[in-house]
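Worked Example 4.2. Consider the chain below.
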Amino acid sequence: MSEKRACREAYTTALLELAKNDPSIIVISSDARGSCSLNNYVKALPDQYIEIGIAEQNEIGISAGLSVVGKKPFVCAPACFLTARSLEQLKVDVAYSHQNVKILGVSGGVSYGALGASHHTLHDIAALRCFPDLTVILPSDAAQTEEVVRTITDMKGAFFIRVGREKIPQIYTEELGIKPFTLGKANTLREGADITLVSCGELVYHSLEAAKLLHEKGIEARVLDMATLKPFDKEAIIKAAKETKAIVSIEEHSINGGLGATVSQVVCENHPVKVKTLGLPDEYLITGNSLELFDYYGLDAKGIAASAEELLAK
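Applying the procedure from the previous section yields the following structure tokens:
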């Protein structure tokens, strides 16, 4: 897991290779070529690219229109603006209208941490998982991101994929021997009978590192990568609740309405065990880069391990 790659670069690289053989793929961006790592795509396929400018609502509406006439639109924009400014268009023009639009939100969570609350994306899972017929995916590394692109390109429907900004460690290697992504299914990255750590996005890596710290203290943690937030793999959570003593959810999102809320609902309704939600608090956050914020809010390996120990001790 030493190699580091950026998910946004993996996404657009995979998309470029597919688009070269499929002229119906059209990428739409809101003045975000650099943010979305689209420069190589635009240079190679200028006729399969539309620049909207800083007009996210128009971006989604135009994408829905392209879908109506048989194109395969891929929207690429910073997640914080896309999922706030365009919420009504995402709801009505895309999800409610059953359009075939793939949406990439880059620099999600606290990737733009140093720029403050206006650039944080802590609401998107809570908002978008409430829209019927909209799939929500948070890949955990570049290999999984590439597999997501290959999986969804020829699938009909609306998809929201949220990735971070920086290069991150590789989880899905040949040595791991696990298919990086299956829509709607969690991946078990590590077995354990004491406690389950379930996470998504960039915090999957930190959860794996936390499991190593727990192992040193004689605690065996199961680690689940819940890349698909909707549809949600309830069976994996119910199984974890039955086979381990407690569950900790870890997410780069508000503690309200995201992965933790979904896990708690599934556990409460099916097989109650102790659950702890680790996320970002219901307040405006401190300023810093993402790793600094993970450390401050207990979302790095050390913080996750400490919370798991505390939960087991209760």
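DSSP finds twelve helices and 14 strands in the chain. The first strand starts at residue 4 and ends at 6. Compare this with Example 4.1 before moving on.
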